[in-house]
Amino acid sequence: GVSGLSRDVLLSLFPVTGTKIYMNLGQPDVIEKYLDLPFDGIGLMRIEFIVSEWIKHHPLYLIKIGKPDEFVNKLADGIARVASAIYPRPVVVRFSDFKTNEYRGLIGGEEFEPEERNPMIGWRGVSRYVSQQYEPAFRLEVRAIKKAREEMGLKNVWVMFPFVRTTWELNKAIGIMEDEGLRRTADFKVWIMAEVPSVVTMADEFSKMVDGFSIGSNDLAQLTLGVDRDSEILGRMGYYDERDPAVLRSMKKLIRVAHKYGRTVSICGQAPSVYPEVTEFLVKEGIDSVSINPDTVIYTRRLVASIEQKLLLRKR
Ligand code: PEP
Ligand code: MG
């Protein structure tokens, strides 16, 4: 690494924590810059950057012009760049989570994307993958994951479904993934994001279907409080707040239920990168990992270690 010390030596300089410290990442190349940081994996790898900056074309357009492999190969390359750099630590790759207006901005996108009045709660996340229109593109995303895991041998690649609303749609999407030959196994974990309050309400049922949850506190706050993330006036008035007791209570409930069913809980929204008190709350509630921005990894590892130490002393 840049410091001239080996990674093992570097990591030994930082406190060990029971709670895993993961990092959020969107641009594959920047991983090189962060290799010296003491993180245990990538808890959220967004693929939107790869699609908009490397692939640039709408996947359905690429299928239409007979170049689906362009999508699969470039996406697999982006994922592999990160997964090989940090192997064997896990990389949780989130399936695409563009909103319709963002998909429309891709080359050839307008033909395939409706104009929605409210894209934030529109045709997004899993509702896309199970739709007749987008399903072929979802299959390309799955093939890219499969290529990274099987052809490139990167078994540290896991997946995460964003914007899950119901068990039936998730069941259908997992079915499509299995149809492409990707099944949940001990080394292939499938997570879902807890962003829509229905995931918390139905956490027991979702627990039977997946290995873990990751709290998308940005969307969970928006939808729990009924506050548009982008509303300036509500933002100024202080309504949009991931520390709101209703949001915290929701996170706590999810951890309780998921653990009852032996499932893990992580968080990949902005909250723990911005509010140490949220990190403290979640560690006390027993969250399994927190995934944060690279610039807060060192601070958060130290913070989590001190919270865990306090908890241990209290238990004695
Ligand atoms: C979230 O909602 O907290 C999240 C991580 O997803 P995004 O911000 O990409 O919607
Ligand atoms: Mg979200």
UniProtKB/TrEMBL annotation:
Keywords: ATP-binding, Kinase, Magnesium, Metal-binding, Nucleotide-binding, Pyruvate, Transferase. One of its GO terms (molecular function) is pyruvate, water dikinase activity. Residues 9-308 form the PEP-utilising enzyme C-terminal domain. GO terms for biological process: gluconeogenesis. It comes from the Archaea. Belongs to the PEP-utilizing enzyme family. Catalyzes the phosphorylation of pyruvate to phosphoenolpyruvate. This is Phosphoenolpyruvate synthase. It comes from Metallosphaera hakonensis JCM 8857 = DSM 7519. The chain holds residues 465 to 780 of 780 of the full protein.
